[in-house]
Design goal:
disordered N terminus; single chain; about 500 residues; EC 2.7.11.1; Ser/Thr_kinase_AS; Protein_kinase_ATP_BS; five-stranded antiparallel sheet; protein serine/threonine kinase activity; ATP-binding
Length: about 500
């Protein structure tokens, strides 16, 4: 067997390759860049929501030069980054949005648009309050140092310990490489961050530290930094150096190749594994906010799943208004699409539902909108408009006037109507029941009826989405629980 050092060396002296290799870690272009939609009825602002929103929204606007990965220690790779700013024009809501720094202050000053698809009361206190049904007080019960990511402690690793093998993905905020630790010859994944606001990077690192060792959460192995000083305006002291995050490697197969090969049991197994990661992060007071197939790494041979890319994740504090420009379009919950900022962990459960629907119906993506507004229309054509209007009424949300032209009245489409010869092996009554309880407009619990009823009767009245823990207990996963029990009794455990 060749000496690992020589293997490694030959990789770095390989012929020059194009850098646009198939991305395993791509992030959507549709994420936070520039101002979000101005919420109409939720225009109240507080210091906390401004800091959350502004730090969320100020994504990097940096392009990188093409990187040739020949003979590339990580230290050299860092030097290729430049800081050319460019502008994104994603949104159709405001052709001339206010500048980013003033956006959330201006939000309170904008006039209310004319009556929309449904007439709403404009009393901002009139809508139901929205607080997470579970884990609402986790961060409130933790010391400030747990969630105040501005004070994160980082012990910086040694940059020279890592070398780049090949590029495997790129996102708005980072470039991702397969790498090698030259000390122990372990494979790793190197996420080279673009010079973005240090607060966003601190948040990602703090969240990864808090989730360390959790089930199916990608492991952060090291954080290293370049010696080149960035010209970012607010980078001072140690933070003047662009960090790279070093992660465990997962031998991922792209979902477009992998999912078509899945059996019915595989889908049940991997969704159940993903739920373990989601319930764990929610129990730690953290919303992922970017659940999608691109961020779920699966090593099918080892039956190993990892939830990656915590760059948009955020700490949940009840009553805080968050930025709605998170998640990728096809996986955005209705709350984001109607500009409801007081969302919670249940956002991740919608994204999981959209992902699950695409897996069982073999339709990727399941809700295929060509803009954020069209995305809500695509959802309404499946879930119907009656429940949508009930949802808007309950939270006193006024739809943007543009929906007058594009949103008609639609009946609810039965889930069985999506079954065909190609997907029927994945679709069972349990699968449809599970999906139906995830893809609900209302992210929140309704008031229990005043007359006491049996719990199972009451459950028929519940209209909100399942939590990750409730989802794990669903009958759809009975075969997975059964297999796990058999493995345990046989003295073996599935890692």
């Amino acid at each position: 067997m060749a000496h690992p050092g020589r293997v490694c060396q030959s990789l770095f002296h390989a012929p020059r390759r194009p850098t646009n290799l198939a991305p395993n870690f791509t992030s959507s272009r549709d994420r936070l860049s520039g101002p979000g939609v101005v919420p109409r009825t939720h225009a109240r602002t507080n210091k906390q929501s401004v800091s959350h929103s502004v730090s969320d929204a100020q994504g990097a606007c940096n392009r990188t030069h093409s990187l040739h990965l020949r003979d590339t220690p990580l230290s050299r790779l860092h030097c290729t980054y430049t800081n050319h700013h460019h502008h994104h024009h994603h949104h159709h809501y405001h052709p001339h949005p206010p500048s980013l720094d003033t956006h959330f202050v201006v939000a309170t000053l904008l006039p209310v648009p004319p009556h929309s698809t449904k007439i709403m009361a404009l009393n901002s206190a009139g809508g139901a309050n929205s607080v997470a049904r579970v884990y609402a007080d986790v961060n409130g019960n933790m010391p400030r140092s747990y969630w105040d990511y501005d004070s994160v402690n980082i012990s910086w690793g040694v940059l020279e310990n890592y070398e780049v093998v090949r590029k495997i993905g790129r996102g708005k905020y980072s470039e991702v490489f397969e790498g090698i630790n030259v000390v122990n010859y372990q494979k790793c994944v190197i996420k080279v961050l673009k010079p973005v606001k240090k607060k966003k990077i601190k948040r990602e690192i703090k969240i990864l530290q808090n989730l360390s060792g959790g089930p199916n959460i990608v492991s952060l192995l090291d954080v290293v930094r370049d010696n080149q000083v960035s010209d970012g305006s607010d980078w001072v002291g140690d933070w003047s150096k662009t960090p790279s995050l070093i992660f465990e490697a997962v031998n991922n197969t792209d979902f477009r190749t992998l999912y078509p090969k899945f059996t019915d049991y595989d889908v049940r197994f991997y969704i159940s594994e993903l739920l373990k990661a989601l319930d764990f992060c929610h129990s730690k007071g953290i919303m992922h906010r970017d659940v999608k197939p691109h961020n779920v790494m699966i090593d099918h041979e080892k039956k190993k799943l990892r939830l990656i890319d915590w760059g948009l994740a955020e700490f949940y504090h009840a009553g805080t208004e968050y930025n709605v420009r998170v998640a990728s379009r096809y996986f955005k919950g209705p709350e984001l699409l109607v500009d409801f900022q007081e969302y919670d962990y249940s956002l991740d459960m919608w994204s999981l539902g959209a992902m699950f629907a695409s897996m069982i119906f073999r339709r990727e993506p399941f809700f295929h909108g060509n803009s954020n507004s069209d995305q809500l229309v695509k959802i309404a054509k499946v879930l119907g408009t009656e429940d949508l209007f009930d949802y808007l009424d309950k939270y006193d949300i006024e739809l943007d006037a543009q929906y007058d032209d594009i949103l008609s009245r639609y009946p609810k489409k039965p889930w069985h109507s999506f079954i065909n010869a190609d997907n029927q092996r994945f679709v069972s009554n349990d699968a449809i029941d599970f999906l139906d309880k995830l893809l609900r407009y209302d992210h929140q619990v309704r008031q229990p009826p005043s007359i006491p009823v049996l719990r199972n009767e009451y459950s028929q009245l519940i209209q909100e989405r399942l939590t990750a823990k409730e989802a794990q207990a669903h009958a759809y996963f009975a075969p997975v629980r059964q297999a796990a029990a058999q493995n345990n009794s046989a003295g073996t455990s599935v890692s």
